[in-house]
């Protein structure tokens, strides 16, 4: 029976080197033989037991992975909520800054208009003269006053 010795190598190759013991290995020590009425029933029972074990392992792997993904989803949802709150806070701050900027621009425009009016008013009343110009004007007025005093 050389094929029996070669079978585990084929199985290892087929199942990506996972540990697997094929049913053909160790048949001589097996509790049943291929003779008799019940051998098909025993083969089915062994096959079903192996399939059940495999299904249980797959189910356990699935449940473990499902649990990990559930935790990951919860973490992502919490992070999403935190980020959403952060975005809302930043939107409120940006809106507040926009309002402050608009108010500051309005105040600046108002100040510019007031400055223009005041400058025009100063020029019209003559208050915008330099000290030299004031001295000159005072000197002229004194001269005029002196001339009037001399006349009377």
Would you mind describing this structure in some detail?
With 152 residues, this protein is mainly alpha-helical. The chain has helices at residues 2-14, 39-125, 131-151. The N and C termini lie far apart (156 Å). The model is unreliable at 1-6 (pLDDT under 50).
Global morphology: rod-shaped
Low-confidence stretches: 1-6
Number of strands: 0
Fraction of residues in β-strands: under 5%
- Summed up, the helix count is 3
Query: Termini, distance in Å?
Result: 156 Å
Classify the helix fraction into a percent range: over 70%
Major β-sheet profile: none
Name a few traits of the molecule:
152 residues, single chain, mainly alpha, rod-shaped
Give a brief outline of the structure.
The chain has 152 residues and is an all-alpha fold.
What's the arrangement of secondary structure elements?
Layout: H1 2-14, H2 39-125, H3 131-151
Keywords: Coiled coil
Coiled coil: 59-151
